[in-house]
């Protein structure tokens, strides 16, 4: 089977709400594709349509070229974690996996293999109702992996996981992709995908905002900015501005310079006799890049009359960045953009 | 792109498309794993069995009869079945072969009351005057024309419906042939019967009798079925006994298990007179099989009305529990062909409830026998029932089948509504409410209401034997919604099929 997910012109309306509005993207094998967008952007709806749960009003979602509903032993082709709490609370974890194995004619050994893989061995014979959200996430991941499928979809898999669990799942996603599988991971927080996603499909209001590799996105967002720390801010700004750079002050002794390479800046400052205590090429975080994209999406949002327009979108972004926490320099980047 | 793409090879050999049968088989296994792995459901199916047996024994212990103390209840015919054998008999002995011819000139009510359709008068040959002894008779009836009847259960229809009419009975060995004629000259054979127990010396003659007319009285919560007596008078002429012996004189006997003129009968209910070749016979009673009035085998099985509630809950929860937690999506992810998931669920829930229900009804049948016997439901008025009798087997298996169908019906309704509480309450109402309302309605309205609701399936529990030549009343309280026990199950099957069909259609159409 060709391990891909192809979404073509997908459209879905629930009542008067358009949840997915002409979405098209492809999830390629061998990489982790992040599926990002704010809550309500249509990520879960899209995943449900890929899984054949909801019928699209228009367009199609194909797995290896076929609609999900035509797959014969689907668990061997697609594994999905859509909702971690979708287990009967009275059923033991192992029995939950066991019925899934039976339904697709899988050997019972797979049940024990995936239990070990997600580390649920000690609680496998306990009722799932007593599980913490993190344990249920692991059970859901075990269920997705039971058929050893070439295509995997995880809807918000790090929700409820402790830091150790988050590290574990990032490693798992990377290794699954390295085995040549197509992995689609949704999140409403870009920071959660930092370090695990290779490719990003960013959506907003049911439409694709960006479909790009993480590499390209970061390069574009960083675009030659250099962070400069100096006690002589005024002189430095004059020297660099005269050389054609655009300079912004971020703090009492820091400047962001763009339009000049770092080596050139060092040379100019030395020539002008301006001392500085530090210089670093700025590496944009995914969060910053996401913010950049969200800002573009704001125009589109403005059409529906969001009060305050850009301001409200930025507020969302800052909140998201703060929650992400681990991304360095994201907070200062936020201020810079103001 | 930093990763070099390797082509993924799954370690699990995906199952090929094995066709509907194998794939449904896998889903059945999956659904069975789902069912057995929820302890509450296992307890639920056990509760269904325990409630059915417990309630059944409770009902059995509260029932009783004094039938064995009444002699007319315990007359037994040649086949061992309980019979009615009460009539006015004007007779003389007949040694060996011979016959009798007579014309019935009238058959009328003698007490001014309504006459039963199965009132009867005619010629008869009988082993003797002992009630329950073997006989053959050809007769006229007001409602059913000429009949040839023998040994209580055999009944052959003649052609004529006219009174006056000629009748003839001819004995040759153990076979007896009945004839009818409009004019006494051209005779038509009605039929020939064999009476293995008929002795060389038999009694031959005229008879008249009539069953009572049923009166059903209903008030809210109680129904009484009464039979008012109906006395008829028949006149005969042209009476001629063909015999090789000298003509003997006529005797008049009231054939009855109790003494004529005793408590059961009034003095003028029976009379036999003759003058100038005209015989007049007055009588009441019947010569017929006695239908089982009470149905003691069925009684304990009505406990299923309580056990049924567990079956309803199981059927509904088997699907609504999945909707409640979104687990239905996992099920449909594992099998996108939703119709097969529904089919597998129906197979599992019906098999579980049927098997458990059958164990419960077999236990209940045996456990209830001593309870019923101590309540008076004992031989000879109530012959010992055996599980191997088809009518008993039908009630035992049918009750389990009822539970299974109710569970599948509930599964269908649960799928349609996707809400546990509403579906369970709705189905219980649909099944229980009619039986409560029925007792307050006129009998025909009650019967029709029960026929049209899923509870009609309970009519499979009837074990009473019915005979076409005996009038019997069918009241819903006795589980008699259909006189044919299987017909009611057909109604429940139809309800179940419609619920499943609608559920299937909605499943395919709806977003999960």
From TrEMBL, chain A:
Q: Which residues form the ABC transporter domain?
A: 5-230
Q: Which SMART domains match?
A: AAA
Q: Which Gene3D superfamilies match?
A: P-loop containing nucleotide triphosphate hydrolases
Query: Does the keyword Ubl conjugation belong to this entry?
Result: no
Keyword annotations for this protein, in alphabetical order, are: ATP-binding, Nucleotide-binding, Transport
Q: Where is this region: Disordered?
A: 301-338
> Does this UniProt record's set of keywords contain Metal-binding?
no
SUPFAM superfamilies noted in UniProt:
P-loop containing nucleoside triphosphate hydrolases
| Record-given protein name | ATP-binding cassette domain-containing protein
From TrEMBL, chain B:
One Pfam annotation, family name?
A: ABC2_membrane_2
Membrane-spanning segments:
41-60, 299-321, 342-367, 392-417, 424-449, 486-507
Which key words are in the record?
Membrane, Transmembrane, Transmembrane helix
Question: In which domain of life is the source organism classified?
Answer: Bacteria
- One Gene Ontology cellular component annotation? plasma membrane
Any one GO MF term held by the record is: ABC-type transporter activity
What is this protein identified as? Answer: ABC transporter permease subunit
Q: Which organism is it from?
A: Actinomadura rudentiformis
